[in-house]
TrEMBL record:
One cellular component (GO) term of this entry: endomembrane system
One of the Pfam families matching this protein, by short name: PEMT
InterPro entries per record: Metal_cation-efflux_comp, Phopholipid_MeTrfase
Span of the signal peptide: none
Keywords: Membrane, Methyltransferase, Transferase, Transmembrane, Transmembrane helix
Protein's name according to its UniProt entry: Isoprenylcysteine carboxylmethyltransferase family protein
Transmembrane segments: 6-27, 39-56, 62-87, 124-153
GO molecular function, one term: methyltransferase activity
GO terms, biological process: methylation
Taxonomy, superkingdom: Bacteria
Membrane topology note: Multi-pass membrane protein
Keyword Ribosomal protein: no
Length: 188
């Protein structure tokens, strides 16, 4: 069974939603009051380039073909795509590709933000892992590890900004809701 088409559909919808949301927010979102400079998207692109090089240079490297794992990956990919889009939609005009505080910024704690403090990251991580499993392309596990490390760094930056902006309200939220993995008791 080949899940490449599912991958193309999920990632295509994700990219269209992100580009459409960015364009919409450019014209309709509140002005940015505070921004943290981040170079992580450049690092991510460089890392993705390395993975692509490995995949092209060594086709079949780390490949596996276990149908049950591919089915699990397909379900994870589809579910994570929906979760990511839900989280992005719930943030609405407060969303930005980098850590920012906007005019009248409010702390979003409903919907997927009741399940995890960073549901967009949770969803993207699930999408990458689901892609690796569903396609049998083991080289994508490098992408999974890279994105996980990148997002853990981003989370530290964003959470400092959220504590600075929302103070005790965010600290209370941190106590109630896990960082990335739903149901995980370790909140930090």
């Amino acid at each position: 069974m080949n899940f490449v088409h599912l991958n193309l559909i999920c990632w295509g919808i994700f990219i269209l939603a992100w580009i459409g949301g960015a364009i919409y927010n450019h014209y309709h979102a509140p002005a940015v009051q505070q921004r943290r400079l981040q170079f992580d998207w450049m690092i991510l692109l460089l890392f993705w380039g390395v993975i692509q090089y490995i995949a092209v240079r060594y086709p079949g490297a780390l490949a596996f073909h276990l149908l049950w794992l591919q089915v699990v990956g397909a379900v994870l990919l589809a579910g994570s795509t929906l979760f990511t889009l839900w989280a992005r939609w719930k943030l609405g005009k407060m969303w930005a590709s980098v850590a920012v505080v906007k005019e009248a910024h409010r702390l979003c704690t409903e919907g997927p933000y009741r399940i995890t403090r960073h549901p967009i990251y949770t969803g993207i991580i699930g999408m990458v892992l689901g892609s690796a499993l569903s396609t049998g392309a083991g080289v994508l596990f490098l992408g999974f590890l890279g994105i996980l490390i990148l997002f853990l760094i981003r989370i530290r930056i964003e959470e400092r900004l959220m504590v600075q902006t929302f103070g005790e309200q965010y600290l209370e939220y941190k106590k109630r809701v896990p960082r990335l993995i739903p149901g995980l008791k370790w909140r930090k």
